[in-house]
Amino acid sequence: MCMKHFYVGVDVGGTNIKSALVKNGKVLQRAKLPTNGQQGPVPVINQIKKAIRTFSKPIAGIGIGIAGIIDSKKGIVRYSPNLIDWNNIKLAQAIRDEFSIPVHILNDVNAICLGEWKFGAAKGHNSVFLFTLGTGVGGAAVCEGHLLFGANGFAGEFGHSTIKYDGKKCTCGRFGHLEGYVGARFIAARARRMMKQQPSALNKYKKITPHIIAREAKKGDAVSKKVFEQIGFYIGIGVSSIISLFDPGIIVISGGISKAGRILFEPIRKTVAQRLMGAQFRKYKIVPGKLGDDAGILGAVYYASEVS
């Protein structure tokens, strides 16, 4: 990353657009605007432009992270699940035409991975796998110092790896995918099923979320603890496959559900140790992310500075 220049990083979410002025890997100023994602591409692009104009410094480039199928080489959003009618949108060109500086876009999880690799939990490692654990499950990899895009630019879809060939239906319509077992809505549904079988502190809540389940698990609620043991087991199966395939030195788990801490990470690590071939000979770590919301912004800026 160029040490002398300012960059703007943008994280386009389904609800909010978060942006930041960045220099030398440090966030200097932040902004947040509503995405207006239900209004179509033009209003969202206008909001992105407005978010960038927040910063008065002369900037050398712009990096944008956005969920979906992203053609980073051509700067095109092929599809974004969080935004209405976002199909084959030339986002990089639209922003470049407005500001007349280099603009680069990439998948939001790729951006998070780059951020944690260069500035966060995976700093100093050459081979990294990161996945986000929230409403859905996303993944990205750095292999021997290079972000892995794959032949079509879609590498890292960890949530749609199969952990049970005849398993339950995933949100994507296929069966047995990891996301169908550990995505936020499935965690809550699992808890509700178990509450019918035995008493639980969760019964006092009208709406159950992974955050609430984690809180009650830490207080000792048996159902809540069992829920996290089970989702940790399923994640551990997926992580075992990732380590077998890529042999990363570090696996970073980010996203809201990762904040559960020990009650989640202990069953993950236990399952990996039990299932991974040659586990005793491998050096690897399974850790939470460090950067929170800044990871995607810093990663997008790093990508923009390296590609420009």
* CATH fold name of the largest domain: Nucleotidyltransferase, domain 5
| Strand order of the biggest β-sheet | 3-2-1-4-8
Within CATH, the superfamily of the largest domain carries the name ATPase, nucleotide binding domain
CATH class of the largest domain: Alpha Beta
Mean pLDDT: 93
User: How many domains in all?
Assistant: 2
The parts where pLDDT drops under 50 for at least 5 residues are none
Report how far apart the termini are: 10 Å
Count the E strands.
13
Q: Share of helix among residues?
A: 25-40%
Treating each run of at least 4 consecutive H or I residues as one helix, how many helices? 9
How much is the radius of gyration in Å? 20 Å
Report the CATH architecture of the largest domain. 2-Layer Sandwich
Give the helix/strand class: alpha/beta
The major beta sheet can be summarized as: 5 strands, mixed
Order of helices and strands, N to C?
Answer: EEEHEEEEHEHEEEHHHHEHEH
Into which percentage range does the β-strand content fall? 15-25%
Shape: globular
Question: How would you concisely characterize the structure shown here?
Answer:
The protein has 308 residues and is of the alpha/beta class. The protein is built from nine helices and 13 strands. It has two domains: 6-114 and 293-307, ATPase, nucleotide binding domain (Nucleotidyltransferase, domain 5); 124-288, ATPase, nucleotide binding domain (Nucleotidyltransferase, domain 5).
